[in-house]
Amino acid sequence: MKKSIAIIGVPMDLGQMRRGVDMGPSAIRYAGVVERLENLNLEIEDLGDIEIGSADRNANSENNLKNLKAVADANVLLASKVDGVFREGKFPLIFGGDHSIAIGSIAGVAKHFNNLGVIWYDAHGDLNTAETSPSGNIHGMSLAVSLGLGDQSLTSIGGYAPKIKPENIVIIGARSLDEGERKLIKEKGIKVYTMHEIDRLGMTAVMDEAIHYLKERTDGVHLSLDLDGLDPHDAPGVGTPVNGGISYRESHLAMEMLEESKLITSAEFVEVNPILDERNKTAEVAVALMGSLFGEKLL
Ligand SMILES: NC(=[NH2+])NCCC[C@H](N)C(=O)O
Ligand SMILES: [Mn+2]
Ligand SMILES: [Mn+2]
């Protein structure tokens, strides 16, 4: 049977403060994602973009949760859209938008599994809560929210919490963690491959371990790929770049190994910011990685 993929764009930029990341879905489409995946003999349906409400950016939060209402509303919509795609037996492929959209993606997907796993490919942990966040930006909180930690208007999306268990998470590429995030990682025993492990063991061993680890304990895995997981040299169009990241080659290898593993049941590519990009390079990298994730081969 032909694998059927449904694309959902989420032009969200309210989870952080830099303008432009709302144009990520357009940039990724412009980089030719539909044609690229159709060439792999996949059936692609582009469902267009979720509607994002406006928020008064100056009316900021005393509670250290910027644009909370608008971010929550958009994620409610996204969760039900993703849920619908899943019910139709299709693979949800979501384009961000900032990383706060993982709240809705995971809420929509997790109810279809007893033990959803998550690969969080990112320079950051996104494990802050309002209490620990240095910025109040919700894109730095989405993984914590999926663990049931944070404001109730976010954790309750989809009508249940938590969405995932700490032991079903693997973070890959971390190199910038806040104090509270480090504490939470230790407390919950979250598996993290920092850049140190990637340098030391190599991406092959890291992915082998991560795949094996998730295969043993999960019945589906959501890939949440923040383009800032890659080195800014390879993916310059992101709002919170951190030097010393995962290379383009290593990322392709990671996607190829995930494809071989047949582990991934939904995916999102986030934080592409065309205003900060160089001639759409980062969107093109995202599309190239999707190619590998869905089985592109040279020979
Ligand atoms: N999805 C992202 N790019 N997150 C960056 C988060 C940065 C920082 N840890 C914060 O909480 O504000
Ligand atoms: Mn990040
Ligand atoms: Mn992130």
Number of strands: 8
What is bound: which ligands?
arginine, manganese (II) ion
Which strand order do you get reading across the main beta sheet?
Answer: 2-1-3-8-7-4-5-6
What shape does the CA trace take? globular
CATH topology: Arginase, Chain A
Strand content: 15-25%
The main β sheet shows up as: 8 strands, parallel
Helix fraction by DSSP (H/I, runs of at least 4): 25-40%
Enzyme class: hydrolase
GO biological process, one term: arginine metabolic process
Binding site for Mn(2+) 1: 99, 122, 226, 228
Pfam family, one: Arginase
Structure write-up:
Pathway: Nitrogen metabolism; urea cycle; L-ornithine and urea from L-arginine: step 1/1. Mn(2+) 2 binds at residues 124, 126. With 299 residues, the protein is α/β, with parallel strands linked by helices. It has a single domain, classed as Arginase, Chain A (3-Layer(aba) Sandwich), CATH 3.40.800. The protein contains eleven helices and eight strands. An eight-stranded parallel beta sheet has the order 2-1-3-8-7-4-5-6, sandwiched between helices. Strand 7, helix 10 (248-261) and strand 8 (264-270) form a beta-alpha-beta unit. The longest helix is centred in the first third of the chain and has 20 residues, at 68-87. The model has no long low-confidence stretch (mean pLDDT 97). Arginine binds at residues 99, 124, 126, 128, 133-135, 137, 139-140, 178, 226, 228, 240, 271.
